[in-house]
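User: ok so my PI wants both of these folded by tonight, can you help

Assistant: No problem, let's get them done. Here's the first:
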Amino acid sequence: MCYFLLNENYLISEQKYLILIQVSITMIFIPISVFYLLRTIGKADSVMLSDVSQRKIPLFVQALLIFVLVGQSITHDQIPELYFFFLGGLASTLSAFILSLVKIKASLHMTGISTLVFFVIGLSMHNHINAIYLISFLFLIVGIVAASRLQMQAHDGKELLIGFLSGMLPQIAFCFFWL
């Protein structure tokens, strides 16, 4: 949604809706279905996936879904900004997957919100628009997410930092390809 709000593009409304539907199915509905399947067969005990070993299958499936999305729906020729955003998301997911293989837990909440923050920063630079209020709001959300994860004792500071960096660094790296 942030992409369509911050970007003057050549897509007509029907194309925007089609992209939103494709992304929603691939990034929301299929992962929810996979989670319930894993919960049913006993591979996940709760939505928090507090055990690092339970994160492997969902992260692998998420990486596979992002790979399909950038390979089939959101291509470099059609929407380069979104393409590189999702490639950054793929890199973040793969880094979280690799970390889970070595039993290091990264905050996936922090990964997700930092990915969004740095994509919005890139969009504002790319389109030469002042999105300082949105960026400030998103950094406030970063703080709220971090505080809530600490309050719930779901993560420690190191896991939050690892999550933040695993979301931020790929977005910054891929910004150089579309800025």
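One down. Here's the second:
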Amino acid sequence: MIYDNVASCIGNTPLVRLSRVFAEKNVTVLAKMELMNPGGSIKDRPAKYMLEMGIQAGTINHDSHIIESSSGNLAIALAMICKLKGLEFTAVVDPKISPANLKMLRLYGANVVSVTQKDENDGYLLTRINTVKQLLHSIPNSVWINQYANPDNWRSHYYGEAREILGQINHQIDYLVIGASTSGTLMGVSRCLKEVFPAMRIIAVDIVGSILFGGKSAPREIPGIGASRIPELLSANEVDQVVYVDDYESALGCRRLIAEEGIFAGGSSGSSISAIEKLLPEIPAGKCILTLLPDRGDRYLDLIYNEEWLEMVKQRHFKQATDTHEEIA
């Protein structure tokens, strides 16, 4: 098949059995390889879907200037799709954006506005959102995609990878393990699969320092998982269990993937791998676990795959463990 453009190649990603990372366990662990989308991440799906639904609804036209708060995969995906559709795009980013992501945005021709002031949660998310709102008043014909509240975010996953999974698998899925951030992926995939597998348990993976499920706000380094603000899309009552991992555990999960499976994946993928490892003692033999690997590892060379960064989060990991032990004692 010859596709019309690169956006037509989004989706139809393979499902892979992780037979080496969990080789000694009597469970089946399957991973949807979303990192194989043309823009390098799962965010290609909502970027394309939200833009196309906006065009169909008439809220986006050929003069629209798209704005979004994102320092990572969604910004890159929007930049790619907006380039194909001839739309102006501005990404509101913060100082934690990786040099690789910033360079990719500029190569796609995106406008970049960087905030520097931290918000009340010692992060940048609220500052980024406030900046988006200011830009809506100053940029003519501007449209905020609003990944945090736009229902087409979760619908893109419901009608996208979740439907694909149902066509790829021929047996029961017992556990769905997905990293949470804007919650579009978590909500969309779980809602679709629950219709076919009503007994399936929904396991959300969150990062230490995120407040999504009642955690305490604290510094965290890996983008794409966790949040310092609860998104409007999140329906926590649809989640059966939350597993927390920290930056160091996530990095170890990524390094296990590349060492044992040859899969070069990003931070939230490692988070899910470490979460599954924590879950395994309570999962009966013969069960099937499904997870998603959202993005490629090349965007994390300065983070997860950098030895100095790994040593920094390692020290933080063991300090937190010591502090927790002392509090219990």
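Residues 46 and 156 are 5 Å apart (CA to CA). The chain has a mean pLDDT of 94. Good luck tonight!
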